[in-house]
Amino acid sequence: MKLIEKMIRCSINGITLDVEAGTTILQAAKKVGVDVPTLCHLDLHDIGIANQSANCRVCLVEDEKRHQLVPACAEKVVEGMAVQTDSLKAVMARRTSLELLLSNHPQDCLTCIKNLDCELQTLAHDMNIKEIHYPGEKMNHPLDLTSKGISKDSNKCIMCRRCITMCDEVQTVGILSPLKRGFDVVVATAFHLDMDQTSCTYCGQCVSVCPTAALAEMNDTPKVWRALNHPEKHVVVQIAPAVRVALAEEFGFPPGEISTGKIVAALKRLRFDTVVDTNFGADLTVIEEAHELVDRMENGGRLPMLTSCCPAWVQFIEHQFPELLDVPSSCKSPQQMVGTLIKSYYAEKRAIDPKKIVSVSVMPCLAKKAEAARDEFHQNGLRDVDYVITTRELARMIKEAAIDFKTLQEQPFDELLSDSTGAAAIFGTTGGVLEAAARTAYEMMTGKELKEVDFTAIRGLEGVREATIPMGERSLRIGIAHELGNARKLLEAIRDGKSHFDLIEIMACPGGCIGGGGQPYHHGRLDVIKARQEALYRLDATLPKRKSHQNEEVIQLYDVFLEKPGSHKAHQLLHTTYSAKTRI
User: Fold this and answer.
1) How many other CB atoms are found less than 10 A from the CB of residue 183?
2) Which of 140, 256, 496, 547, CA to CA, is 20 to 30 A from 248?
3) Which position among 114, 343, 368, 547 bears the catalytic label?
4) Is 514 exposed, middle or buried (0-12, 13-18, 19+ CB in 10 A)?
């Protein structure tokens, strides 16, 4: 029997209400529709984590009985408390706190990557701050551009510590912490190491919660523009599944709007020579991974097998669990498979010198930038994928070209490397890779047709999920985790010999790729993640073919180029190896 929580009576701006014990003033104010500005506050209550350190003091309100200012995000309501959020004392204190932050902040808003998407900028506008009364010395830290995925500008850090909450508590990577004291305090890596010298996974979740541009994606759009303007370059672009259900948000559409045809049209207006689909690579990945799984299960191979499509979690296991590097599938990610085929199969079919091809991908993920730059993803001196831009970066390119996204007429992908099934569409959400693999593995293992392709038992947004799928005479025991803190639990179980799974899917970001660090900012709203997830399932349900091995273009690719799943040539082009990394 659930115990009844003690209720506390209080008032917010003269409005009386009853709230549960432990409720903060900020939470109580929301219950009566009172808006209190916040900056450092980060509420991830869907996973039981909140940053309530009250560092910025932007949410100060007045406790009338004590005649004191208190931070609304951290101060708990007590019996009989009377709070004024808009008293003159509270308003002026909040303005002072914000002015002090602005006095130590660069004034390059017009050229900042987060211009018009910066929470500090928005608050300054909302509070009508037009003059800073506290000029003084500013921080002067060097930029860190060593990482292939994340840029770090500590001069724009406001010490909100949201990134620390995300990196330490949610992702359990732990590379960020406050260093020094007083005016010199800064969020940094241990010993001020460059990002590329740490065990950062480049998942980008720190970027997704940073209110300013202290942490941002590496901007690769200038390189793409140069390639598009090069008269001797043939530029091919691929689009990841999660991009097509999120990009439209940047143009005023609701979350979950499917805009595949408009994205293709926009890319062609940007003068990309060919537009192909990462979903083709997803179908190909499913076939190779399912073949590898069946081989392991039938021939005594290493189990569980872990799917390897997420580069952030691959970085995580290389740094944190190097003793388990024989566990992940050896398959490349869909991005890298398509990139490999663009420089080989596509080049051969189109009679184009691979040296003249520039391969670009549009991804929801910052780790994809780092993945494309890995040493092993080169062939004949050429990178499989030359440049990776995020969903946000593509939106900026479309706006820069003054393309009216809303009125674009939908266009189809070009012919090669573009066919896909419903199984590929769900790659962008947690559980989707595993569900797609199970559809194909079932028919490989049983030789029978799978009639019910929806494995609803493994869908959802719980951090760790598990299910058992009948596969003829045996069952497939599967585990799913999204967010690296949850992945750690499954990996520790494998390391300690306590895992009972045959196949495990791990995605680094909340909800999977749909919540990636390069997607339009969702500001922790679970309803946005759910809308994107539901859109991918709608795509899957409406496609005529929903199993990867039914993809006729993939079948033809094997017939004329790769021979068969798991062949020597397939291994040469579509598989990879992993290596232990130093953990710092």
Assistant:
1) 11
2) 547
3) 368
4) buried
Distances (CA, A) of 170 to 72, 213, 215, 510: 23, 21, 17, 10
- Contacts for 406 with CB less than 8 Å, ≥ 6 apart: 251, 252, 253
Q: Is 309 a catalytic residue?
A: yes
Q: How far apart are CA 317 and CA 320, in angstroms?
A: 5
Are 411 and 261 in contact, with CB atoms under 8 Å apart?
Answer: yes
In angstroms, what CA-CA distances link 138 with 102, 107, 549? Answer: 10, 11, 59
Q: pLDDT digits over 317-338, tens only?
A: 999 999 999 999 999 999 999 9
Is 151 designated active site? no
What are the backbone angles phi and psi of residue 565, rounded to the nearest 5°?
Answer: -60, 135
Q: Tell me the C-alpha distance between 247 and 214, whole Å.
A: 23
Catalytic residue among 53, 147, 208, 329: 329
Catalytic position from the list 292, 318, 435, 505:
292
> What Cα–Cα distance (Å) separates residue 583 from each residue in 148, 173, 246, 357?
18, 10, 34, 36
Write b or e for each residue in 229-253: b if 16 or more Cβ atoms lie within 10 A of its Cβ, otherwise e: eeeeebbbbbbbbbbbbbbbbbbeb
Query: Out of 56, 344, 513, 547, which one is annotated catalytic?
Result: 513
Q: pLDDT tens across 206-226, in order?
A: 999 999 999 999 999 999 999
How do beta strands 186-188 and 503-507 pair? unpaired
pLDDT tens for 178-214 read: 998 888 888 999 988 999 999 999 999 999 999 999 9
Structure-token pair, residue 338: 């398509």
Choosing from 217, 249, 289, 318, which is the catalytic residue? 289
- Residue 329 annotated to the active site: yes
142: tokens are 């060097």
Q: Which domains does the chain have, with CATH numbers?
A: 7-100 (3.10.20.740), 104-217 (3.30.70.20), 222-574 (3.40.50.1780)
Q: Which of 20, 348, 376, 410 is catalytic?
A: 376
Amino acid symbol at 248? A
| Helix pair 88-103, 119-126: axis angle to 10 deg | 140
Q: Where are the beta strands (DSSP E) in 196-297?
A: 215-217, 234-239, 274-277
Give the residue among 505, 364, 486, 493 at the shortest CA–CA distance from 49.
486
Quick check: 295 and 341 in contact, CB under 8 A? no
| Annotation says 513 is catalytic | yes
DSSP-assigned letters across all residues of 377-446: SEETTEES--EEEEHHHHHHHHHHTT--GGGPPP-PPPSTT----HHHHGGGSTTHHHHHHHHHHHHHHH
Cα–Cα nearest to 49, from 160, 168, 157, 159: 168
- Of the residues 40, 309, 331, 365, which is catalytic? 309
CB atoms within 10 A of CB 332: 26
The continuous run of DSSP H or E covering 7 comes out as strand 7-12
Residue 289: active-site member: yes
How far are the Cα atoms of 245, 357, 550 from residue 339, in angstroms, in the given order?
A: 22, 11, 22
Query: In angstroms, how far is the first alpha carbon of the chain from the final one?
Result: 47
Which of 179-188, 310-319, 464-473 is the most confident on average? 310-319
